[in-house]
Amino acid sequence: MTVKTIDNSFEPYGTFYDEPLEMSKHDLTSHEITSTSKKLDHLFVLPCESYIECPQGTARILISDAPDGGELKTFPVRHHIKLFPGIHFNIIPLSVPLTWNLITPGKEAQILPLSTPYTYQPVSVPFHVRRIIDCWFTRQEKPYNIVKAASRSYELLYVYEGSMNIRLSTGSYAMQAHDLIIYRADTASISIESSCSYLTVIFDVNHRKTLHILNHIFHCTSEMQQVLWKLLIESFEHSYYTGTLIICYLQEALLLLLQFYETISHKTLLSDSKSSQNDLLSEILTYMNTRIAEPITIEEICHEFFISRSSLQALFKTHLNTSPKNYLLNIKLQKSKELIRENQYTISEIAYMLGFSSIHYFSRLFKKYFNTTPSSYVKKISDNQNIAKNK
Do 79 and 16 contact (CB within 8 A), yes or no? Predict the structure, then answer.
């Protein structure tokens, strides 16, 4: 999550200034640094106040107030920056390469490696509406019954006025004004006993996992009602931009639903039945293990399962007493030992296969976790095999 500099969230770390510093006047030394990658494997730290000036280009600053880089935050670099002593930082180049100046009172910055490299993730969405197959508004004044065949596409029903009953394979649902339901691949039986006005949208999304907000009745907030009203009105228009606007409104409505659902899920995460929590955790662990050879990030996992970072952290802390980042790192390192024992790949190849940024970073983590280097582990296995052969 990016943090804006117009609020007060940067205050614990430093301040901003507009005019470049006069080096000689303040007895300062400038160190020119060129950053060429959005993936960072280390942070800088100084025991004194330091200054960062980026003459050209676009960048963000990565900040941590802990030496282990526990909680990392990013801020846009819109001005020159003065950092307080002891702040751990690095510059993320958004325009590559980026040359920036680290200005200090003659002090050399200490370089501390990150336990896991940080890769900047631009703002993105977990899914997007690929197409709207059909969209229409119906006003039914008399009793009405219809059975809709199952479809692979999603269908959204929003009751604008009146009421209706809908029966799916998961049960029957009574819908009142401003209620909404989304379902997929299910036969739907709709029954209207008196007058009812409702909106129907049939659509597809670009996401391999099924939306997890299906078959729930949501009572729409005023914000959601306004978005759906704009979608409804636009469905009657026939301008050049109508199709794009409808998709945008539907995308907004779905994201509001997911946000609302996520808020509820996070509040009840520790109080809900443990079976549902275990099911979600099991899916996430399977996802991690099947993609162990890919450089996946925590952000990607959150997007894949429509879960916030805080909820993901709480889930792992509650059931595994660890963080998602440490769990992912652990299974990668355990897999590396398995691959080393198989003796089919070099250490460099194994590091690359498991998504580590470099063999040096992989070796450092391997030594930290297993108290031995990869090459020493190879030698130990070889020695054990020779002893076994000679017996």
Answer: yes
For the stretch 187-219, pLDDT in tens is: 999 999 988 999 999 999 987 778 878 998 998
* Residue bearing the bigger pLDDT, 173 or 262: 173
Q: What is the pLDDT of residue 274?
A: 52
Q: How far is the C-alpha of 333 from the C-alpha of 310, rounded, in Å? A: 25
- Tell me whether residue 172 is exposed, middle or buried, using C-beta atoms within 10 angstroms of its C-beta: 0 to 12, 13 to 18, 19 or more: exposed
Strand partners, 34: 99
Closest CA to 42 of 96, 94, 118: 118
Own/partner pairs for 328-333, CB < 8 Å, 24+ apart? 328/288, 328/296, 328/298, 329/115, 329/116, 329/365, 330/369, 331/288, 331/289, 331/292, 332/292, 332/356, 333/365, 333/366, 333/369, 333/370
- Global pTM exceeds 0.85: no
User: At residue 118, what is the residue type?
Assistant: Y
Distance CA 38, CA 61 (A): 11
Tell whether the model's pLDDT for residue 125 goes beyond 80: no
**Would you call 248 helix, strand, or coil by DSSP?**
helix
Q: How deeply is 116 buried, as exposed, middle or buried, from its count of CB atoms within 10 A (0-12, 13-18, 19+)?
A: buried
Residues 133-157, mean pLDDT to the nearest whole number: 92
Sign of CA pseudo-dihedral 139, 142, 143, 149: negative
Residues 296, 80: Cα–Cα separation, whole Å: 33
Q: What is the mean pLDDT of residues 226-241?
A: 89
